[in-house]
Amino acid sequence: MFSALKKLVGTEPGQLGNKNIPAGLQSMNQSLQRRFAKGVQYNMKIIIRGDRNTGKSALWHRLQGKKFLEEYIPTQEIQVSSIHWNYKSKKIAFTFGQPLL
What we know:
The chain is mainly α and 101 residues long. It has two domains: 1-40, no CATH class; 41-84, no CATH class. 23% of the residues lie in helices and 0% in strands. It has helices at 3-9, 30-37, 56-63. The longest helix is centred in the N-terminal third of the chain and has 8 residues, at 30-37. Keywords: Nucleotide-binding. InterPro entries: P-loop_NTPase (IPR027417), RABL6 (IPR040385), Small_GTPase (IPR001806).
């Protein structure tokens, strides 16, 4: 997962494999790499806001893992939910200041 970064940065602090990398950038130690490889836990609050009949509640239900409902049922109240996601990124892009093409 971090092999591309290791090739660019090197294995020792200060050992740079690419001249475009900013000064002061160091390689990530092994214990931190293993920790990030297992995924990262995030705690965030999301507000979904918009006009009537635009799919806010449908999006909210899908984020909770519920099925999409075809019928329109207007929501009259504020909805609050705690959602636990087990998300592990499979692909990471490091650009080092270069735009993604």
